[in-house]
Amino acid sequence: MNSRLTNILPFLVAGLLALFPLVESTFYMQLLTKVLIMAIFAMSLDLLVGYTGLVSFGHAAYFGLAGYAIALMAPKYETISLWWSLPAAIGVCALFALITGTLVLRTRGIYFIMVTLAFSQMLFFIFHDTKIGGGSDGIYLYAKPSMNFGDVQLLNLEKLENFYWLVLVLTVAVYLLLHRVLGSTFGRALLGIKVNEHRMRALGFPVFRYQLASFTLSGALAGMAGYLAAAQYGFVNPEILSWHQSGAVLMMVILGGMGTLYGSVIGAFAFVLLQEVLSNQAWFGPSAKHWQLAMGIFIMLVALYLPQGLAGLSQRFGRKPVAEAADE
Amino acid sequence: MHKNEKIGYDRREFLKGGTAIAGATAAGVLLPAGIARAQQAKLKIGMMLPATGTFAPLGLAITNGFKLAVAERGGKLGGREIEYFTVDDESNPAKAPENVNKLVQRDKVDVVIGTVHSGVVMGMAKVLRESGTLWINPNGGAGAMTGAMCSPNFFRTSFSNWQTTYALGKVLKAKGHKNAVFITWKYAGGEEMMQGFKEGFEKEGGKLTKELYLPFPQVEFQALLTEIASIRPDAVVAFFAGGGQVKFLKDYQAAGLKGKIPLYGSGFLTEDLEASGDAAEGVETTLHYGDGLDTKKNNAFRLAYAKAFKLQPDVYAVQGYDAGQLLAAGLDAVKGNVGNKSAMIKAMESAKIDSPRGPWTLSKSHNPVQDMYLRKVVGKENKVQGVAWKALADPALGCKA
Amino acid sequence: MDFAFFLIQLLNGLQYGLLLFLVASGLTLVFGIMGIINLAHGSFYMVGAYLAWSLSSLTGSLTAAILLAIPLTVILGMGLERLLFRHLYQRDHLYQVLLTYGLILVFEELRSLIWGDDVHGVAVPALLNASIPLTDNLSYPVYRLAISGVCLLLAAGLYFLIQKTRLGMMIRAGASNREMVQSLGIDIKLIYTLVFALGIALAAFAGMINAPLSSVFPNMGSQVLIICFVVVVIGGIGSVKGAMAASLMIGLAETFGQVLVPEVAGMIVYVLMAVVLVWRPEGLFGRG
Q1: Based on the structure, what is the number of domains in chain B?
Q2: What DSSP string describes A171-235?
Q3: Are C78 and C193 within 8 A, CB to CB?
Q4: Residue C263: count of CB within 10 angstroms of its CB
Q5: B69 plus B154 within the same structural domain
Q6: Are residues B232 and B361 in the same domain?
Q7: Residue B401: inside a domain, yes or no?
Q8: Global pTM value
Q9: What is the DSSP string of B39-57?
Q10: B189-203 burial, b if ≥16 CB within 10 A, otherwise e?
Q11: Is A99 at the interface with chain C, CB within 8 A?
Q12: Residue B400 falls inside a structural domain
């Protein structure tokens, strides 16, 4: 793959995906919507894991917090305007990430993994054990957010394909944003910190501030994904804050290939679709019940034989990912 | 319960939200595949039940029960052959809307059967209310399903959490207990059962001294058992399920409380007597079924079930079986034409189900109006002591249907 | 809260803590010495419990079941180390996370295929099936005391093994400098295999002796896993001493939390962990 192709490829893929509703406009389009939302979520985590060298095992906290934010902000019987509710939900997550970030960034390595888990578990129990968000039964969002300009409806998000296109546009936007950020001085500094924190500190970089900025941005983007996920099905349950969810998105990032944004997208596709395929009774009959066995074996094989994740498959023929190249 | 206010919602709004899906379904009918789906095509039944994890055995029992009901009708319902579509809900509420969508939108099933976990039931309710697909819930007792979220296409053949403990108040009073402690996990199901008991007990003049909650799904009961000992209530009422129920019974015994402070519960507490051993001996519970119920219907059911599946049926199997019976009642009335939904719903509403648990009918919100039995554990059996409450109906708080 | 009540709760907390220690000690060893993050640790706890159940229903004795099961789990541990984990020592922790996450799914399904999905009870050995009366209506099970005793013995044994024996010396040296140890002619691979098997056996053993108390059920491993990670991290990775201190801390915090502040009981351990880590980022007994 030459570099010009890799530059156009995301747009080609996005263009193809944009046409999907013309082919199938109900179930599989909704599945794809979900995959794209998870791709945003995974990219936000990749910013931390793959580029900043901070492994968060509590990323579901931001995802779920935004979900609860929209569900709680929305008036009971009416739609909520996307124009302010999306920024508000993202803002809540950014603020929470900023606060937790100042605390968790004191730790490193496995301790960092665990303390991020601790914060997400606290949120889980807050929503699970109190009535704020309907307790363990969860809370409903009765209508999709509205996108109006004055009195004119710009896009009716109740139409599934419109919601799909919105998510697709946001996915591309997040990809481009992160691409920009990572290509900037800031992004290069992050990579430098990932490779050798002490050296960067000695060079006078405000390491902590850079990491905190990355952590906050990551939390905010995870919040965007969580907002969309809540809006898609209109149901928020404490389970979206659980460590299983944090684990799943981490799997997507590693599976796809860390430190390559498109790897996260591939990982999200692979993770969701694989489960979809393996648990499909129509194809695998009664053995579909044991889909987790096949899933587990697949994950183990990737861990053992594909150190670059699925994205590594393509790299056998092309250039190395940015983060990897910087390691050398 | 103020929680219900949050879930209750305006009907017009819901219709507005549902139009997109309704439109999509209507469009689907125009496709060639839709035309082929004529009267004699197979009836599509979507089973959304747990196939993995702690609740997998419950999912199996429900499936078996349902299939037994179908088999008794010659493998057909309303004269139509059946095609099953199955989805493993993993007992994960976060995935519930997506999973039920597989059945509704991908497989385009005529009716959805499911599920065990209350949180998943809540997720299903959102989607099924919008799609209008016929839904029979063979277990999950979330009050809101037939309360604030109730809908004409929603049916339940099991219980509401409230029902399983309400009758206990009368039972405790009759035994002369003036105060009690309730212990359960801190989650919606546990709280609803606590609420049911509290109402029933206070109505009889009893006093619920303390509500003890354990973080879900922890099973370290020791600290709370010590607290119970220091409170010295006349009686203890408990609800735990899955791995928790057995451990609770054993810990209760090991802590020396068994035999000193009588233990009661909703029947699920003693549904696994093989694992509980003698720790469950003498515990009294209320439930809408008892293994040893000596009626002609129950004996025939138990025999047929054991023959077909080489397993002993339990309350979950009964609920699955009744889901099949209820569906049959609806389909028979419209001769298998599921398109005639309103007639079918009407027939189901007025059906009198001849269940192994005893005959029952449906309340206005489509939850069973049923006898609650008082059962006592004797050996490996929940021996039915009598009817604790005749024809108990859920109050269906917030249901405007 | 009167004094007797307080004392009994103290006992409850300590006992729960000791039980946690048993599971967590294996995790912290494998973690600290080999640098392996093993998410599947809880699965071995589950395997132990299911082995205890199936073998004790075969032999009719929990003791016999445990004696039979220990060698099995050691073999399982050695086999997995050779087949899987060995390939990941030099790689990023994240691949270990990926591998062991996959392993959880595989173990959970194998459990379902071999033993089914039902809940099972395991009988307490007759000899220990008694209770000591503490107040007029509360007594304390002997079996719990016995477990606490075993935990303490194992803790002492581990301490001795690591601090006082030649093998322990090699293990410690291997943890700090793999190449040097190898150049001294010590078979580091063998040591790693042994340590890993020991860690697995400890988790499985915890599952076995706890089976009569916890009963045996699907997904029982994941419940225990997270709390054990909390223990390991609070105590400081690789520190058996730290694991002991943290287990007791958590045992007490959960016990008194449930009684004194039931509204927030679910969060307590995580708040505790966050506070400890913000205060001492490398854990209580971590090497920094």
Answers
A1: 2
A2: HHHHHHHHHHHHHSHHHHHHHHHHH-HHHHHHTT--HHHHHHHHHHHHHHHHHHHHHHHHHHHSE
A3: yes
A4: 11
A5: yes
A6: no
A7: no
A8: 0.89
A9: TTSPEEEEEEE--SSTTHH
A10: bbbbbbbbbbbbbee
A11: no
A12: no
Half-sphere exposure at residue A184, Cβ-oriented, CA atoms within 13 angstroms: 9
How close is the nearest chain B Cα to the Cα of C45, in Å?
A: 15
d(CA C94, CA C271): 25
Domain that holds residue A193: 3-327
Give the Cα separation of C172 and C175 in Å (integer): 5
| Residue A323 forms contact with C (CB below 8 Å) | no
Do the chains contact at A299 and C105, CB–CB below 8 Å? yes
Query: How would you class C166 by CB atoms within 10 Å of its CB: exposed for 0-12, middle for 13-18, buried for 19 or more?
Result: exposed
Beta-bridge partners for B360 = B353
Q: Can you give the length of chain A in residues?
A: 328
Omega before C281 within 30 of 0, i.e. cis: no
A299/C101 touch (CB, cutoff 8 Å), yes or no: yes
Residues B171 and B280 in one domain: yes
Question: DSSP code of C212?
Answer: H
Tell whether B179 and B250 lie within a shared domain.
yes
Domains and CATH numbers, chain C: 9-279 (1.10.3470)
Strands B134-137 and B111-113, sheet pairing: parallel
How many angstroms separate the CA atoms of C63 and B84, rounded? 47
Q: How many residues does chain B have?
A: 401
A275: Cα within 13 Å, side-chain hemisphere: 23
Under the banding of pLDDT at 50, 70 and 90, the label for residue A229 is very high
Task: Determine the Cα–Cα distance for residues A172 and A170; give it in Å rounded to an integer.
Answer: 5
Same domain, B257 and B184: yes
Burial class for B222, CB neighbours closer than 10 Å (0-12, 13-18, 19+): buried
Task: Give the model confidence (pLDDT) of A9-28 as tens digits.
Answer: 778 888 888 888 888 778 89
Q: How distant is the alpha carbon of residue C30 from its chain centre? A: 11
Q: What are phi and psi of A145, to 5 degrees?
A: -60, 155
**In this complex, which of B216, B222, B246 lies closest to C12 when CB atoms are compared?**
B222
CATH code (residue B259): 3.40.50.2300
Pairwise CA distance, residues C271 & C226, whole Å = 14
What is the value of ipTM here, to two decimals? 0.89
Mean pLDDT by 10 residues, chain C (288 residues): 84 92 90 86 95 94 95 95 88 86 93 90 88 83 91 92 87 76 80 91 94 87 88 90 94 93 88 89 80
Residue B41 within a domain = yes
Q: Which of C205, C200, C50, C201 is nearest to C113 (CA)?
A: C50
Is residue B361 a part of any domain in this protein?
A: yes
Place of tokens 């945003």: A40
Residues of chain B in contact with residue A77, where contact means CB-CB under 8 angstroms, are: 9-10, 13
- Cβ burial, residue B30 (10 Å; 0-12/13-18/19+): exposed
Q: Extract the tokens encoding C99.
A: 């591998």
Q: Taking an 8 Å Cβ-Cβ cutoff, which residues of chain B contact chain C? A: 52-54, 56-57, 60, 186, 212-220, 222-227, 229-230, 232, 242-243, 245-247, 250-251, 254-257, 260-261, 272, 274-277
Residue range(s) defining the domain that contains residue B383: 163-287+375-392
Task: Specify whether B271 is located in the same domain as B197.
Answer: yes
Question: How many domains does chain A divide into?
Answer: 1
| Whether B45 contacts B110, CB under 8 Å | yes
Same domain membership, residue B337 and residue B215: no
The angle at the Cα of B127, spanning B124 to B128, to the nearest 5 degrees, equals 80
Q: How many CB atoms lie within 10 A of CB C74?
A: 17
Query: Count of residues for chain C?
Result: 288
Specify whether B58 is located in the same domain as B127: yes
Cα torsion angle, B231, B237, B243, B247, sign:
positive
Q: Model confidence over B106-127: pLDDT tens digits?
A: 999 999 999 999 999 999 999 9
Q: Contacts of residue A128 in chain C, CB cutoff 8 Å?
A: 266
